[in-house]
Write a structure and sequence with these properties.
A hairpin with a 7-residue loop joins strand 5 and strand 6 (117-127). It is globular and about 55 Å long. The strands form two sheets. Strands 1-2-3-8 form a four-stranded antiparallel β-sheet, covered by helices on one side. Strands 4-7-6-5 form a four-stranded antiparallel β-sheet, with no helix packed on it. The longest helix has 8 residues, at 15-22. The protein has helices at residues 7-11, 15-22, and strands at residues 32-39, 50-61, 71-83, 86-91, 98-109, 117-127, 130-135, 137-145. It has two helices and eight strands. It has one domain (3-145). With 155 residues, it is mainly beta.
Length: 155
């Protein structure tokens, strides 16, 4: 799938900011879930419950003269806000929480919501946390440069 076809890129409020920061749409492969926060209430009576996920994103590049080895660069902490979260399942949260991918797909309508379209969100685990849930909105609410001090990528 082309990254232009990635449903997350299409619906994420603030997606352009990620592309501006990284120069391309980030793959989320090997990204680390640094922390999660759950809130019962949202900004209004319809947005809650809310899940906020802070994700360590970065890019990798291989030196043209080398067949192996990757250098990691452009480390940032992105905070995603998921609104109207339903059917949340979490597993395996540990000290790294690397994911294979962050997948989003259309998934009917939210229950008890008068027809609000739903998105199925899946954090596919690589080492640590996996998650699956439905939500109505996804927004980039924070993006700051840096590497978490407890990351395997920290010096």
């Amino acid at each position: 799938m082309s990254t232009d076809d990635d449903p997350l890129r299409q619906i994420l409020v603030g997606a352009a900011r990620l592309v501006e920061t990284f120069g391309v749409w980030p793959s989320f492969h090997d990204s680390e879930i640094v922390d999660l926060r759950l809130e019962r209430l949202g900004r209004d009576a319809y947005e809650g419950p809310v899940l906020l996920a802070r994700i360590h994103l970065f890019m990798g590049r291989r030196a043209p003269e080398r067949a192996t080895g990757v250098s990691w660069h452009d480390h940032h902490l992105a905070t995603l806000r998921f609104g109207s979260v339903r059917e949340l399942e979490l597993s395996g949260f540990n000290g790294q929480n690397a994911i294979m991918n962050l997948r989003v797909r259309r998934d009917g309508v939210l229950p008890h919501s008068a027809g609000v379209p739903a998105w199925r969100v899946e954090f596919e685990p690589a080492y640590g946390m996996g998650a699956s849930f439905r939500c109505a909105t996804i927004e980039l609410v924070g993006l700051e440069p840096g590497i978490p001090s407890d990351s395997v990528y920290a010096d």
